[in-house]
Design goal:
Helix content of chain B: under 10%
Distance between the termini of chain A: 41 Å
Mean pLDDT of chain B: 94
Strand content of chain B: over 45%
Low-confidence stretches of chain B: none
Distance between the termini of chain B: 37 Å
Number of strands of chain A: 11
Helix content of chain A: under 10%
Order of helices and strands of chain B: EEEEEEEEEEE
Oligomer: heterodimer
């Protein structure tokens, strides 16, 4: 069935370093890949997304890359800051049919040490 | 523009009771999806409503149901509560216009079943 694997489950970096989180999806029909940041006591916040017709997308310190052949996509955060500390979720979905169903990865707890 | 709102934010119920959770989407958004978040199972899709019709349903028992009103507000109901239903219930709204894929989450309702 549909599945998204996410690694690592925890990641600790020093402030100013880069952080990379990787995901692999199983459904080759997936064409939309969002990333969410969830802080304690809050709902997931959409931080960046990428569609299957694009290989890379960047927004200030965050970027996402997609390898459709390998069914991999990754989140890159540069110049990390303590406020980047949170749980990050990747997700995959197929858009084109009559559904908005997101399949989520298991999450990565990112800790940025000051 | 106001974000997604969910009420109540916290709820404590006893096993066997039923519960109704409410979600108001972002103004202009016509799709509402519900997700269950637990430490063990992560974020799992419950169902999605669009124009008052359920478009897709996840792998949850029939005790979980929902509906959407003409103003796009949605409710989900869980009957005969079990201890395992304790979770954070999140709703997400999306526009579903042409080329619009983004889903925005509310803060969630924390349900505790005792």
């Amino acid at each position: 069935g549909e599945n998204v694997e996410q690694h690592p489950s925890t990641l600790s970096v020093q402030e100013g370093d880069s952080a990379v989180i990787k995901c692999t999806y199983s459904d080759s029909a997936s064409n939309y890949f969002p990333w969410y940041k969830q802080e304690l006591g809050k709902g997931p916040q959409l931080i960046i997304d990428i569609r299957s017709n694009v290989g890379e997308k960047k927004d200030q310190r965050i970027a996402v890359t997609l390898n459709k052949t390998a069914k991999h996509f990754s989140l890159h955060i540069t110049e990390t800051q303590p406020e980047d500390s949170a749980v990050y979720f990747c997700a995959a979905a197929y858009y084109g049919g009559a559904t908005n169903k997101l399949i989520f990865g298991t999450g990565t707890l990112l800790a940025v040490q000051p | 523009k106001a974000g997604v709102t969910q009420t109540p934010r916290y709820l404590i119920k006893t096993r066997g009771q039923q519960v109704t959770l409410s979600c108001s989407p972002i103004s202009g958004h016509r799709s509402v999806s519900w997700y269950q978040q637990t430490p063990g199972q992560g974020l799992q899709f419950l169902f999605e409503y669009f124009s008052e019709t359920q478009r897709n349903k996840g792998n949850f028992p029939g005790r979980f149901s929902g509906r959407q009103f003409s103003n796009s507000r949605s409710e989900m109901n869980v009957s005969t509560l079990e201890l395992g239903d304790s979770a954070l219930y999140l709703c997400a709204s999306s526009y579903t216009g042409t080329g619009s894929y983004e889903q925005y989450f509310g803060p969630g309702t924390r349900l505790t079943v005792t």
